[in-house]
Amino acid sequence: MAEHNDLGKKGEELAKGYLFENEYIIRDINWRFKKNELDIIAEKNNLLVVVEVKTRTNTYFENPKEAVTKSKQKYIVKATEAYIMEKDIKFETRFDIISVLIENNKVNIEHIMDAFQPSLL
After folding, report:
1. Rounded to whole angstroms, how far apart are CA atoms 111 and 51?
2. Is 100 within 8 Å of 55 (Cβ atoms)?
3. With DSSP H G I counted as helix, E B as strand and the rest as coil, what are the percentages for the chain, rounded to 5?
4. Assigned CATH for 3-120
């Protein structure tokens, strides 16, 4: 596996642990719809939470959360609609970003709740 894939998987594991510690129920990991993938699908307080995880080793080029472009958001929303239909979800949905920065063996996790709204895309 390529090094950037390893980094992404490590970031997803850290994000999953963070969510678990904060009492989220993990429903699915890396759920695929066509070419699109939802990193983490969780649940908390009768709310479906779709989490896009971005992991970096530095912020030289861009902050991880800046990598979730409008185009990427549209794909996430489309895949989420498919997930909701397939799983017959009745909860409200929130879209979050978890930014994982692993720099000099230190981990910084930033959880951005309600990072974007599908109605604004």
Report:
1. 9
2. yes
3. 35, 40, 25
4. 3.40.1350.10
Measured CA distances, 75 to 17, 21, 91, 101, 120 (Å): 25, 28, 20, 24, 14
What amino acid is encoded at 103 in this protein? E
Specify the DSSP element, H or E, that contains 4.
helix 3-21
Residue 54 CB-density burial (10 A; 0-12 exposed, 13-18 middle, 19+ buried) = buried
Two tokens at 62? 């861009």
| Phi, psi (degrees; rounded to nearest 5) at 108 | -120, 120
pTM: 0.90
**CA neighbor of 7 nearest in space, from 113, 112, 107:** 107
pLDDT tens by residue, the chain, 121 residues: 455 568 889 999 999 999 999 999 999 999 999 999 999 999 999 999 999 999 988 766 676 667 899 999 999 999 999 999 999 999 999 999 999 998 888 999 999 999 999 876 5
Residue 118 DSSP symbol: G
